Amino acid sequence: MTTLTKTEDASAPTGPESFLSVRDLKVTFSTEDGPVKAVDGLSFDVQRGKTLGIVGESGSGKSVTNLTILGLHSPRTTTVDGEIVMDGKELITASEKELEQLRGNKMAMIFQDPLTALSPFYTVGRQLSEPFMKHRGASKKEAKDRAIEMLTKVGIPQPKTRFDDYPHQFSGGMRQRAMIAMALMCDPDLLIADEPTTALDVTVQAQILDLLKDLQQEFGSAIIFITHDLGVISQMADDLLVMYAGRAVERGSAREVMSTPKHPYTWGLLSSMPRLDSNLDEALEPIPGAPPSLLTPPDGCRFHPRCAYTDLVPGNQCSTTRPPLGDGRASACHLTAEQKQTLFIDKIQPRLR
Asked: Where in or outside the cell is it found (predicted)?
């Protein structure tokens, strides 16, 4: 049964009034092996017309967070605590009927795999039209005109003809464009993009990213962009949240986090990225080990079993005490500010040049 409570997160972000505000979010799944803490005390803000990037390895809680915002979790197996407020509306305590009025209307999602997100039994045009008729009370003709307009806007060739095609008749890039068109049919205030370019070649990927930026400028939507690709996020995001094992470990403007990261996990992500100007014989430096099981996560900092710098922190704090994230530009790490700066300059920055 879903538990609904509101809590105050002392380390909540500060800044201008947010369109979307998430505070101390906890999402726990009930399984046969025990509770899985998929998200554990997450807080962030998203402003109108801005893009928040969320990065992290698979299993870090990125997609779970955003499916929870949309209310797409099973109340029988999921416990949700905390607060999610969108434009003054509390979403965790909202009824399913209220959420249905918001999904596809005020908030929408671009899923990672459009082939599974789109129904194979209905034409693309029908799948675009139905939400518009439901939420806007439009006629079939009005909905078709709107769908053709959106297919044109996202760059689908011959949109009047492709309106009657099925998803399998579209290429991968065209299906992703159709998913974007569907998400934007009702001019949503919040758009969640869950790794929308993962399966696309680099040319189509660049086109999709440019398209999202252009559409955001036109519609003024707040965007949450989920990815594991820091190269992509550097092009898209205004602000950046780095997640590890269900927790936020670093946040700040995308420029700050990419240029002067402060958490060892972010250092590892950046150091493991291939660079166009690097020597082809130069080996990448992967993060050692693997993310922890969220059935039995480690105490203290969840990254400490994989961190190379725990011996610099006195008193075993890394393995016993959870480091706070703090306000504004921050990282959840027990290293001092001086240690972080010295380590970054001496060990990390030379790898990123």
From this structure: Cell membrane
